[in-house]
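TICKET #2291
ISSUE: user wants both folds in one file
ATTACHMENT 1:
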Amino acid sequence: MKSIFRNYLAVLILITQISLLAACDKLANVVPDKTVKQTSPKLFRNKDSRGRYDTIGKLGTHSISIPAGVIDGWARYVGAPGDFADPKIKSQYQRPEKTYDLPIESFGFNYRITDGDVLTSFRQTEEDYRNDSKTLIPQGKPFPWAGVIIYGVYDNSQALNFNKYSYDIFKAKKEVSNIDYIEQPETLYGLTLYKANNGIDHETGEPWKSDTLSEDILIKKNQTGEIKTYISCQFTHSKNSCYHMFYNDDWHIRVYLRYNRIYLAQWQKFEHNIINILESWRVTKEGKLLGKQIGKA
């Protein structure tokens, strides 16, 4: 009986030793995690005198920091659902972290024609804009502001010109409204001018009195024949505005402006000033400004 007990005790001790050895081996193989978890550095963002942060991202080919209070509405980033998207799509959309590489699809602002400044809330230009709206528009006087929308172009297969767009417009006018656009012998402000049926209403034989279908079209080509600027202008007493679009190769953007036709002669200045405004918003990949921001409050 004692021998059986001794054998049982020996087996029990052996099992215990084996268990202890296994536990020791397991503990020996556990290496304390001494590595420091890497956390991404806090993104630097510029802000204005009121503590409002800039809107950041990449517009076309350049990273920018748009001063707070400048954007009319909000910036839309590539991939974000549109205003009229299915609510289910919107609810499932996961907004990416905003960085200086996040591509911006579009945004808008108001540009002052007289001095190349922009409208910024809580800045003198806001009061100027409000005052011009109250005093000039009711009197039918030219409004010295242009609405601007900037679109980033990210499709490398998309041509940065209006060649096809112009062709499609002229074709549609002919097929739908039986209107031929005729190139005029003389340019206007350096732009090639096209008039609907040479400016004559084919139904009355008199000059157009309504511009619903017959606005003037003006274009500017570069040396290789690409249409870089496309402008359509209405010309009745009730509608006297121009819709001005242009491409910029360096930025890979399309710009849209709307302004009173009386300012058409300044079209080149507008294009230069818009790019100058964008240049003032450029930043490094770390968010450091490359110049003084136009429109900063």
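ATTACHMENT 2:
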Amino acid sequence: MASPMDAITAIHNAFRRDLAGIDAAALGSARDKSGLSETTERYRFFNEVLVWHANGEELAIFPLLENVAPSVAEAYIMDHRGLDAAFDALDSSVSARDSLETARATAAFKFHLDIHLAKEDAHLYRLIRERVSVPDQGKALGLMASTVPSERFPEFIAWIFPLLGQDDRENMTRIWQTVMPAQVFAGVIQLVRKAVDDDWPELARRIPELAT
């Protein structure tokens, strides 16, 4: 059965995959001097999602961690401020239409984020899984999700599900099915169906009740 923290793992995997694509596009633009690509410009929405995620962690996850592992979250908050600075450098480079500086800034952003997510997966969320009850994890996940503006949730679904593998899609869907009111989930799953497109039959096979 999916754990509430599996949803965080899925989000982290989406961040990794999307930023890898943005980084590759930035490098390609710097090499052929053809200008910044549409893929690179996608970084602005990527960062919006990253800010929602970081705010959610600071609102819901870090206080929960403080109860079971005092002072551990302090270093992760420092990482968040570092990511803010990395984004500012990237934003300045793109605004200046400087493809070389954009590639440098994107690589630095990716390097920092990759390390941060790896530390969270291996350390922070391991502590949450081991020391916090599943019901409390679920409550924290719900509070964390509240940082995504409701009117932007369709954009979030359209962004994340194409970036996920089948296991992450299944886990995310099962968790939402558990924590969302039935009426809300019924609307959300239609957005998921649109986002996964031709892969919907596989998701429905894994979660048979979606087909009913």
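RESOLUTION: both attachments delivered.
EXTRA DETAIL ON ATTACHMENT 2: The longest helix spans residues 99-131.
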